[in-house]
Amino acid sequence: MKKYENTNFRVAYPEIVGIIVFACLLAATIFFYKSYTDVKDLFNIERTEVDFIIQAPSMEQVTEISSLSHIDRIVPYYYRSVDVSAGKGKVSSHLFIVESADDIPYTTLSKELLLKKGPGNGVNALYVTDDFAKSAGVKAGDSIRISIDGTEVDFTIEGIYKTDHRHVGGTLIAVKTTDIENAMKRARYGGAFIASNNLSESGSYFANEYKPQGDIRSREEFETDDAYQTYLETRDQSDTTKEAFVTADYASELSRRNSGKLLRNLILVIALAIAAYIILALIMIVRTNNYTKTNVPRDIKDNFTIGQETRMYRKYFATLCLLMLLINVAVTAVSYLLGWMELVSIVNIAEIGGTLFVAIILGSAATRKLKERFLIENQKYEEKKRKAQGAASQKQ
Questions:
Q1: Beta-carbon count within 10 A of 22 CB
Q2: Assign residue 227 a region: left if phi > 0, alpha if psi is -120 to 50, beta otherwise?
Q3: Helix-then-strand count for the chain, H and E
Q4: pLDDT tens, 305-331?
Q5: What do you get for the CA distance between the two ends of the chain, in Å?
Q6: Antiparallel, parallel or unpaired: β 151-161 and 71-86
Q7: How far apart are CA 345 and CA 176, in angstroms?
Q8: Angstrom distance (rounded) from CA 129 to CA 131
Q9: Residue 23, SS3?
Q10: Per-residue confidence (pLDDT) for residue 224, from 0 to 100
Q11: Which residues, including other chains, have CB under 8 Å from residue 273's CB and lie 6 or more apart?
Q12: Which pLDDT value is given to residue 1?
């Protein structure tokens, strides 16, 4: 009996070509999934308590608005366009400063959008969106320095949230502390987040009655009383009613512009994923089926056992699985370096899990089919052998 080593049934160039195609399809799946999630993230503001964002209320207006029956909550904020010193150097971003930590869930950074939480014991808590975190090269718990009106203040990142991509450079929200208050040279509200229990009534109020008073310049900013009076008269004559940001209208416009992109990218993700696993299935089925049909009778004739055949199949599938997993890891690493995906994400886990699942199912099915084929061919061979022996006996 020969030593069993069939050089014809090993991973060869047809499988290598298939694996390369499989890798390209996986990469394309991740790319279009990234495009899909980028568009979907635009709608993240719908997952917050924010119904309106108004501009420049005065402190008196904040008190007045909070007393309205159709308003659940108003969160006024100070706004600064800032340069942040972080891991990757200086990054320009948008800083919103609120009065209390209890206000954070009622801003555009809701609990539902929280990705990573900080230690909770840092100085000057700062909450940031993930696009800022990526561009700045920071993570939850890191310390960063922000220049506020020329004074640098140290912050600790206490939360990273999903972005809605409305602000280039990301969104930063801080709670006002003594350090921040001392750094601010002007203490006027830049705007306010509004949670409403009656969108129609609140929308009518902000469109027709609300006129921002928090941005009125003071007398000290003018050289003469006449200049100041002229400014006030000009302001009164102009339309100072500034249209409020309405979350529902914004979301409707986003839907009008992007629903086609969402559907297209989702279809592409599904189609590419299916195509990738079809390629994987073909790689694992075609050669094994051909071998089972054409080579098993020869192997039986050469006195190879079913145990030897099974071990050969298992070695072949183990090699294929290892190559597929290495391809998955390589695609994941490249996607991470290109900024398409986190190193550990639901998509990467699903792809690796899917590859293992398909490989195990197909490998088991092919091995089972091999055993069935081997038994059938072995019976045929034994029957043929008995007939040949009988014929030889009759001749004698």
A1: 25
A2: alpha
A3: 10, 10
A4: 888 888 888 888 888 888 888 888 888
A5: 28
A6: unpaired
A7: 34
A8: 6
A9: helix
A10: 82
A11: 25, 29, 354
A12: 40
